[in-house]
Amino acid sequence: MLANAINEELNNEYSYVFDRQRVREKRTKKEIGLHAVRGGTIAGEHDIIFAGRDEVIK
Fold this sequence. Notes:
This protein has 1 helix and 4 strands. With 58 residues, the protein is an alpha+beta fold.
C-alpha cells in the first residue's frame, strides 16, 4: 500500500521488482524494490525501511 501510494504520486512511472536475490546488476531508475522478511511467531510487528545511498530511514 505504501509503494502504491508513492507510485501514484509519481504518475505510476515506477515498476515493482520482488526478490532480486540472484540479480547482480544495478537497479534501473524506474524500479522500486520490495522485499518481505517473515520469521518466528511475532504477529503485527512491522518495519518500513527506505534505503538510499549513505542513509537508511526506518
